[in-house]
Amino acid sequence: MTLIRKKMAGALAGIFVCAALTVLAAPGLSMAITAGEEEKIAEKFLKIVKAHFEIIDDPFIADYISGTGNKILSTFPKKAFDYHFYVIKENSYNAFAMPAGHIFINSGLIAAMENENELAGILSHEIAHVQLRHISQSIERGSKVSLLTAAGLLAGIFLGPGMGAAASNALAVGSLAAGHSIMLAHSREHEVQADQIGLKYLMKAGYSGAGLLTILKKMRDKTWFGPDHIPVYLTTHPAVKDRMAYIETQMKRRPVLKTRPDHPDFEKAKTRIAALYGDARLALNRFKNDTRKDPQNPMALYGYGLALAESGQNAQAEGFFLKALGERPFEPDILTDLGRVYYLQGDYGQALSALEGALAIRPGHIQALFFLARTRMAMKDYDAALDAVETVADRRPDYQNVLYLLGKTHGKKGDMGNAHYWLGLHHRKKEEWKTAIFHLKRALAGDFSAAKKEKIQKMIADASKKKRERERELEEEEERKKYQTWSKQRNFMVKVPRPWVADRRDVE
């Protein structure tokens, strides 16, 4: 790509991201979309996110981020929506809020933070965007595009490079072509409003605005190599310099007398993100060096154990988990991960001891219960395994593979009706429609009530409909690819001279 084309691409990208908080806005409109429409856009947006990124399904990290957000939300007199917090496995610096209370933050941004104040500052700003319904206000009621297109445009703007240039530009250009205007001034106004409201309730929650100021400075001051590397956050949240000046002024006017200390889980969440969801090689080197520098640092020992286990070195990981427990003997998360490596090594007795120890300290620990169920299954204690996995399913029905484990456990107990039912739900959740229909049809032979069987029949009908829709989408995609191939070949034949036609200069 030439320098001019690169500059043009950068300029276009700038235009797209300037739409951040004024998406699909039209001058003079005061009417926003309904709460129900926000929910539909958020649902479609979430599907796009899951198609292009990995959302970290780690109960400890998810609970910690949600808990921090809820501390801030508890100070609001009224919540506009039920809030949901997500951590995207992505090294770039980004955080954003979508309609209906869905807030996303990249793991890379959390890894760059030094304290909980920084995390709280980012979350409070995004919560304020949702409370003020900024995106809702920016979508034109009178001539808005379809909800799917709106979700696509938002994805193209907020997800940035992680979507891939072709995907994000296609989403953004397709929507912009619908003739919707973009007003940068309005998005700046939204940023000011979000800072005003966010800081007010951040400070009410006992945090200092210094955290938000610090993380903004980190993003602004870091050296970025070209426009493709600039954090999406800086472009979707404009006027950073003005925002920083405003935050500093407000901190002088309204100083927090007693700042909330970091929760102990902040450092543990960062450790888990670095060890399990970052670059594996870098994680091993980092925690190896950390343990050499400070052999008694429990988080360095724990992090190295996690990184070793993630790379399959379970025997070595066991040693570092035991060292970490020597520094913090009553740490349920370390005990849980120790139990996990014992389970993976086939040492079920030791696994059981560690996992039960974790649950004695923290009853209801999701990961401890999940691996306890797997350990009990391996030991052929199916009743105890079912008790444990049902507890996980009741508390965290969306937890990774819990539905699959439920199905397998019922199958081992000989209850094939429930086995097929839960396996059907597992594949339905993964949108594997053919396999879901297979299991749900067989579940109908189970000893269920008439109401339950009617529910299963409805799920089969819905899965069959989704399967047909997916097949049509694949057919349309295949036809589109064929047309593109034909079109390219046709253009080539038109433009390229036929080899058997002599050049006029050859006969002159």
TrEMBL record:
Signal peptide as annotated in the record: 1-25
Keywords, comma-separated and alphabetical: Hydrolase, Metal-binding, Metalloprotease, Protease, Signal, TPR repeat, Zinc
Pfam families hit by this protein: Peptidase_M48, TPR_16, TPR_19
Keyword Phosphoprotein annotated: no
Annotated stretches, region: Disordered: 462-481
One Gene Ontology CC term in the entry: membrane
TPR repeat locations: 332-365
Protein name (database record): Peptidase M48 domain-containing protein
One record GO biological process: proteolysis involved in protein catabolic process
Native source organism of the sequence: uncultured Desulfobacteraceae bacterium
Cofactor field: Zn(2+)
Keyword rRNA processing attached: no
Lineage: Bacteria, Pseudomonadati, Thermodesulfobacteriota, Desulfobacteria, Desulfobacterales
Top-level division of the source organism's lineage: Bacteria
GO molecular function terms noted in the UniProt entry: metal ion binding; metalloendopeptidase activity
InterPro entries: Mito/Outer_Membr_Metalloprot (IPR051156), Peptidase_M48 (IPR001915), TPR-like_helical_dom_sf (IPR011990), TPR_rpt (IPR019734)
Domain Peptidase M48: 75-248
